[in-house]
Amino acid sequence: YAFDFSVWELWGALLHGGRLVVVSYEVSRTPGAFLDLLAEHGVTVLNQTPSAFHQLAQADASGPRRLALRLVVFGGEALRLSRLADWYRRHPDDAPVLVNMYGITETTVHVTYQPLTRELVTGAAASVIGTGIPDLRTYVLDGALRLVPPGVVGELYVAGAGVARGYLGRPGLTAERFVADPY
Questions:
Q1: Between 31-41 and 50-62, two packed helices, what is the crossing angle to 10 degrees?
Q2: pTM above 0.85, yes or no
């Protein structure tokens, strides 16, 4: 059993010698103040929902700050790639690198990742979730748990060490949602 994003946000920084910057609620809801905080503290890795980043990008457009960001990780909701076009007009592909991550609570945060580029953002018709992270296996299956060919509609199944053991105190729901890896 586990809780979600805070695991990655807290321990990712601390286990790799980084500094964890705790942001007040008020600053987190004020894009200009949040940008100032990122610049002041030299934040290098930022995790954001796409909608929060869109507001941050708008504040950046109205008065860019000198940011130390190396990596921005998106998660928590679908990413509309077209909303990043303005960001890429002002920033190069690698300063910072933007990464879309797809995940569900049952996998203790992330399942797939997709590094983004200006070319991908302008050429893709829909959000792209990328490729699976190393401790998980992903399958697109039909209703009988059979693999479907590329391009055929199915349901995403996830297996591997990163999948949770179940829902705490909810054995019925666990039995329904956590199926054995068919492959």
A1: 80
A2: yes
**Confidence at residue 104, expressed as pLDDT on a 0 to 100 scale:** 81
Q: Determine the Cα–Cα distance for residues 58 and 113; give it in Å rounded to an integer.
A: 24
CA 78 → CA 55, 66, 155, distances in Å? 15, 28, 17
Three-point CA angle 133, 76, 9, nearest 5°: 70
- For the chain, the domains span 5-133, 134-183
CATH architecture of 134-183: Roll (2.30)
Topology at the third CATH level for domain 5-133: Rossmann fold (3.40.50)
User: Cα torsion for 166, 134, 159, 141, to the nearest 10°?
Assistant: 140
Let me know: does 62 contact 86? Beta carbons within 8 Å: no
Pair of tokens at residue 38: 């990122």
